[in-house]
């Protein structure tokens, strides 16, 4: 597994952290977008070099190659930068490429591929048997549909000791290839408190201040539809309720100072 430069700040040829990048670039959207495009170019170069290396070693046709990302990136949409803001298509839809002789050689446009589909697809492509009922996802090798799929996002931005404010943002969405339906389970007071904190402390504050109207609008709505999803509100809520009822027990632990600082450098924390 290799983490490429990808579309993750710092973009382009900047050698600092994500925080330093946004501090340096300020509110110049055109420069940020140009740097982002440069990042993608660099990532493609790395990916192609790995394909070439596998071919030169004679193992390309017996190697499963996957190119994907864990999230998208905002480049000014909704007055925001990065990926710590309300759920939008630019954050949810990410490119995914599989290269293997047993994976269909086609571009899938009218179907819904989910991160939970990665593991079943890997097992099938490598000829491994498994109890498929234990997985939430589906194998790309077998078949995919455009069934609406859930998406969840949650983060803590402010101390939870402020009276009446949790400092938490949370969004729930349902998406298919046509679009998505998103609702927030954070109060408007929490949303605007977080926004206010970002406007004063975030490394992206200069850009956000220049686009304050967009920022306020994107944090105002409690429910929104993007694109033309093939389902209605009731179906979306049913998908979310089913996903929550099927949730498996997880484990939570506090981050160390080093882990917290690393996530801040990568832009996940403000």
Please provide a brief summary of the model.
This protein is of the alpha+beta class and 270 residues long. The protein has 9 helices and 8 strands. Helix content is 37%, strand content 14%.
Low-confidence stretches: none
What's the total helix number? 9
Main β-sheet description: 4 strands, antiparallel
Regarding quaternary structure, how should these chains be classified?
Answer: single chain
Distance between the termini: 27 Å
Major beta sheet, strand line-up: 5-6-7-8
Shape, per Cα inertia axes: globular
* Fraction in helix: 25-40%
Describe the structure.
With 270 residues, this protein is α+β, with helices and mostly antiparallel strands. The chain has one domain (18-265). Helix content is 37%, strand content 14%. It contains 9 helices and 8 strands. The protein has helices at 18-25, 29-56, 89-92, 118-125, 188-201, 205-210, 212-220, 233-245, 257-265, and strands spanning 65-67, 74-75, 81-82, 97-99, 149-156, 168-176, 179-184, 223-227. The chain has a 4-stranded antiparallel β-sheet. A two-stranded antiparallel ribbon has the order 1-4. Helix 5 (188-201) runs antiparallel to helix 7. The longest helix has 28 residues, at 29-56. It is globular and about 55 Å long. The mean pLDDT is 87.
